[in-house]
Amino acid sequence: IVSGVVVCWCAVWLYILLTRRACTSKARLDGKTVIITGSNSGIGKATALDLAARGARVIMACRNVDRALQVRKRIADKTRNNNIIVKSIDLSDMLSVRQFAEDVNNYEPRLDVLIHNAGVLIPEKLTTDQGLNTIFATNHFGPFLLTHLLMGLLKRTGKSRIIFVSSSAHSIGNLDLSNPNPKKDASTSRLLFSWNMYCSSKLAGVLCARELARRLEGSGVTANCLHPGYVYTSILCNPCPNTVAEHVFTFLFPLIMTKRQGAQTTIHLAVSEELERVSGKYFSNCMEKTPGNVTEDVELAGKYWRLCEAIVG
């Protein structure tokens, strides 16, 4: 039995190793500006490192500014690119989103890539001070508003890309148009509620990304979303910061990716030349995939879009 388990494990590990893809583009981003939310850890940090190495001006949009400044220094030292900026944003706070967008619009002459990477699964508080579901606010309402506020700059820049880091969990999410800002009831556990909200917020993101792509047709701006894979980050497994531990864990559990591996599809969408005109698609493992069926519902997308507009003001 033991030998059979070992053989099966080796077969799975080998299959995943042989089929896992990485971004192969060597494109440079000199003179281009990229915003990455949640880029002080996880795949956001790995994405920032890669794009900075390609010469981009990287704006790290983070809630924890002190940590972001430490990461910024390490990235700058490693890439020899000092054109890395840290700006404060709390995506669960619509006022903070507006202040961030105002600052970018006032001081940045261009925006080539907007990467919505930040996300939360189990927040400290389930409801924000503004009365919003914290998971929905962070994972969807905040990015929705930020995209709207930066759209003018994206369009003026031309050939810009908007990227939503989603999850395959969107396929089991549910959107109730009669209750777009859900609150936890007493009969539901905090963990189950948070998981349901995470899945549903990711569904909201995919649905609206595809609706956004329809609205942007002919504008020169594209919008795509992606599933990064199952990555060794705090949103999945509260990782040890030790890089050796990360690689040991991902070796023992081959479905789990390192942060660098998990960032590859985001990087692919941000830099690959062949995707310049591709919009409204869903990607995983650096390939186009088919998202959940409900994301094809154009009528639902339109209705939900208008609800989101009303919620974020």
UniProtKB/TrEMBL annotation:
Pfam families: adh_short (PF00106)
Keyword presence, Oxidoreductase: yes
Keywords from the named record: Oxidoreductase
Ranges that cross the membrane: none
GO molecular function, one term: oxidoreductase activity
Top-level taxon in the UniProt lineage: Eukaryota
Record protein name field: Uncharacterized protein
Organism: Homalodisca liturata
